């Protein structure tokens, strides 16, 4: 689904009840944080959540790290969750994903 508007305005009522795949591309801390807040609880067990522009300079010092808020938002949100972020290499551009472990 694609919704026009701010994440805070469109996500609370614009998501399906269950989600099996989500691609989050918000670029900024607040955008990713809000997206995770509304998407995570709707992810089905085994669902995949892909996060665009997640760069970890400790893993890939040559990665494109111009949007550090993405990693920070993910790390903050996932700190108390059972899932772990998996880093994905795509040349200089890097992303991450996690698979939902429980409903």
Your description of this structure?
The chain has 103 residues and is α+β, with helices and mostly antiparallel strands. 29% of the residues lie in helices and 26% in strands. The chain contains three helices and four strands; from the N terminus they run H-E-H-E-H-E-E. The chain has a four-stranded mixed β-sheet, with helices on one face. Strand 1, helix 2 and strand 2 form a beta-alpha-beta unit. Helix 2 packs parallel to helix 3. The relative contact order is 0.20. The mean pLDDT is 92.
Structural class: alpha+beta
Distance between the termini: 21 Å
Average pLDDT taken over every residue: 92
What percentage of amino acids are in beta strands? 25-35%
Helical fraction equals: 25-40%
Shape: globular
Oligomeric composition of the shown chains? single chain
| Secondary-structure element pattern, one letter each | HEHEHEE
Biggest sheet layout = 4 strands, mixed
Uncertain spans, ≥5 residues at pLDDT below 50?
none
Instruction: Tell me the number of strands.
Output: 4
- Rg from Cα: 13 Å
Overview in brief:
The protein is an alpha+beta fold. Helix content is 29%, strand content 26%.
Topology overview:
Elements: H1 7-14, E1 19-24, H2 29-39, E2 43-51, H3 68-78, E3 86-90, E4 93-99
């Amino acid at each position: 689904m694609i919704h026009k508007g701010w994440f805070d305005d469109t996500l609370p009522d614009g998501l399906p009840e269950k989600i099996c795949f989500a691609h989050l591309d918000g670029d900024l801390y607040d955008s990713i944080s809000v997206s995770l807040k509304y998407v995570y609880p709707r992810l089905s067990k085994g669902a995949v959540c892909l996060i665009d522009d997640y760069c970890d300079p400790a893993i890939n010092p040559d990665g494109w790290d111009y949007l550090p808020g993405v990693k920070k938002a993910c790390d903050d949100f996932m700190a108390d969750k059972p899932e772990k972020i998996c880093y994905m290499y795509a040349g200089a551009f890097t992303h991450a994903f996690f698979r939902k472990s429980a409903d």
